[in-house]
Amino acid sequence: MTRARVTLTVDRNARIIFVRYIGEVDGQTITESSISQFSDVENVWEYDAIFDLRRFDGVLLSPEVQELGERWRELVSGRDAGRRSAIITSDPFLIARLPVTRQRFPGRTIEIFATFDEGLEWIKSGKLS
After folding, report:
1. For the domain that residue 42 is a member of, what is the CATH number?
2. Which of 128, 129, 126 minimizes the C-alpha distance to 48?
3. pLDDT in tens, 11-30
4. Is the dihedral of CA 81, 84, 89, 92 positive or negative?
5. Superkingdom of this entry's organism (predicted)?
6. From CA 70, how far away is CA 114, in angstroms rounded?
7. Distance (Å) of CA 60 to CA 17, 33, 49, 80, 99
């Protein structure tokens, strides 16, 4: 059985944060762990992000996405405007909720991709403009 966890890896040179939700992680744990780890990254608002949910077996409810968005906005104070977030998933529930997710993170451009490589390529293409 996979140990449930949230991992965060920072590529300081590329200015990309890689976040992975693994196993059956609950929404409160996602919020607390994510915000705690984001807080450790200096100028976190200067980074694009890839959220890899391919191994995520939990459920992230709308109120939990709302809380995560509120905590994120408190942390970055709008300084992340124009940054990108790629969500890697094939989960139809998460795909259907993309408009709600976008509303919770208004300064960021958020898209969903089926593969990690597609998401990474999209993130990198924004750095070329």
Report:
1. 3.30.750.24
2. 126
3. 999 999 999 999 999 999 99
4. positive
5. Bacteria
6. 27
7. 20, 14, 18, 23, 14
Encoding tokens for residue 68?
Answer: 């995560």
Distance CA(38)–CA(17), nearest Å, equals 9
Count of the separate structural domains present in the chain:
1
Q: How many CB atoms lie within 10 A of CB 68?
A: 21
In this structure, what is the dihedral angle of CA atoms 9, 30, 117, 111, given to the nearest 10 degrees? Answer: -130
Half-sphere exposure of 32 (CA within 13 A, CB side): 6
Dump pLDDT digits (tens) for 49-68.
999 999 999 988 889 999 99
Residue ranges of the alpha helices (H) in the chain?
A: 27-39, 62-76, 92-96, 98-104, 116-128
Domain containing 52 equals 5-128
Q: Which of 102, 99, 107, 109 is nearest to 129 (CA)?
A: 109
CB 42 within 8 A of CB 112: no
